[in-house]
Each structure stands twice: as C-alpha cells, then as structure tokens.
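Regression report. Comparing outputs from two consecutive submissions.

Submission 1:
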Amino acid sequence: MALLRRALRQPDGLILFTGPTGAGKSLSMIHCLREINTPELNITTVEEPVEILLPGIHQVAVHEAIGLNFAQCLRALLRQDPDVVLIGEMRDFETISAALTIAETGHLVFATLHTNSAVSTINRIIDVFPAHQHNQVRTQLSATLQGVLSQQLLPCTTGGRVLALEVMIPNAAIRSQIREDKIHMVYQSMQMGADKTGMQTLNQNLVTLVQKRSISVDIAMNAAYDSDELKGLLSRVGLGKVG
C-alpha cells in the first residue's frame, strides 16, 4: 500500500495500530518496523512483554511489578535519542502524553490502542486529557498524526481468518478537521478520499471482502461499527441479503 509506505518513511510523527485483542496489531506494527529497519536507524521498542525478538533493534521490557511502567521507560529511552520508538500499548494518560511529545520532538512513534476506528482513536486520545488541554492536544495531534490502521481478523469462508482493515492517512482536510474540533467530519473525508488517496473505511473494506467471497454478509455485518451504512453499501452492489 503506497500511502502507508509513504507514512512509514516520515522522519517523525505518530502511526497507530488499533483494534480488539487478538486482531494482530502487534504483528502489523512489527511488520512495519521490519519494513523500515536499516543499520542507520536507531529503533527502540517498549513492550509488555517483548513478543518477538528483532535483530538490530533495542527492545525494552516493561516491569510494572517493580515500578517500571511504560511512561518511565519512554522517558529513559529518550536519552538514547532514538529515531523510531515502538510503544506496545498506549493504555493511560501518561503513556499517551509521552507518545505525543516524542512524536512532536522529531521521532517516529508506532503504538497500539484498543479502539475500533480512526475517528474513535482520535477521540480516545483527546478525551484522556483534561478538558482545558483539548485545544492543545488537537493541535498536537493534527500536526503529528501520520496514520491510523484499525484492524480485525475475521473468519474466512474458506477457513482461517482474513484481515479487515480501515486506513486513515491524514491529508490537509483531515488535519484541519482535527485541529478545528470537526472530528465528526473525518469519516466523510476518508470516504471521499478513498479512490484518490488509498484511504479506506472499515465498511468499504468489508464490502470488498464480501465481493471477493472472503467473508459472508453475516460476518461483515457483525464486524461493522456502522451496520446501517454497511447494509446500504452492500445493497448498492447487489449484496444486501443477510444470510
């Protein structure tokens, strides 16, 4: 995906991998790390636990039982001046705040969140901060966010599982919408930019998977976070019958 590859080549910013537990977020993130890994790059990961050993990459394991949490690890690793930082999970205010600061100060940050869409991811990050900081956080996020990949692993009609993926790579319109607190318009911008930019909503990808007979209509409907919209999209391509 050319759009994602361009995002991965940015010198700084925040790329988020989201979805439920078991959706393969960490594997996708590690695949992207391998895509950009070169001897010239100083890459550090902060994980709990370290899931896969990666040659040439400095990996730090979080040990909250002894008081070493994500935020403390992130503050410590900045002294090593990494080019790329992978955060196993942005689970609290301290970690999210640290990730934004790291991305804003010249580093490329990969991280995961338990959210199901690009829009809910943006809202989740903003809402973790006190209300009086929301304007500042929207400004930070509009400048630093390089991409959101929201994924699910769904039962495939031929056995196994298949990846359903929503991709949001912020363009000028989306950055403006985040900054100006018009986040409800981001989804429409993703829909409109799908053909031109390679972005896609989850529902657009679900329709494609049904058309390819990779998943059933029932599975698609259960996976959608806006099933009414999906029903309309399926009807337009003659696939509206559930069952």
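Submission 2:
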Amino acid sequence: MAISYKKLWKLLIDKDMMKKDLRAMTGVSTTTMSRLSKDENVSTEIVSKICSVLNCDVGDIMEFVPDKKEEQ
C-alpha cells in the first residue's frame, strides 16, 4: 500500500502556489516537504496543517495507491 501526494502538487498549481509558499504557511520543515515529494509517510498532524491552510479535505491532497500485488 502506498500514498501518493500528486493531488497536493496539482492543487498547488491550481492555486498558483509554490512548495516554498506551502512550507512557509504551514511551518513544516524542508525534510517534511522532501518526504511529501517522495510520497513517503508524514504524520496526520502535517496532513491536517496542509488541509487547514489550503482549506481542503484529505482526499484533495492525497490518495491511496494499491500495490500491484494487491490488485491481482
């Protein structure tokens, strides 16, 4: 099971924002932004901060991507 944050990056483009803008607005570290960019795990607190700042729902910034093994 994997989580993808592609929706987050698309939302930032739609809002004409850059990653550095999101980082400044949420106060998350560069390490956390890197983890998001690599679709790695981040805490629910971080996800909550992002949703609050962008005024969106969790499903608007991330999605579950099943492993190929799970699809079979």
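Expected: both submissions complete independently.
Actual: both completed, but the second showed a warning that disappeared on reload.
Relevant detail on submission 2: The mean pLDDT is 93.
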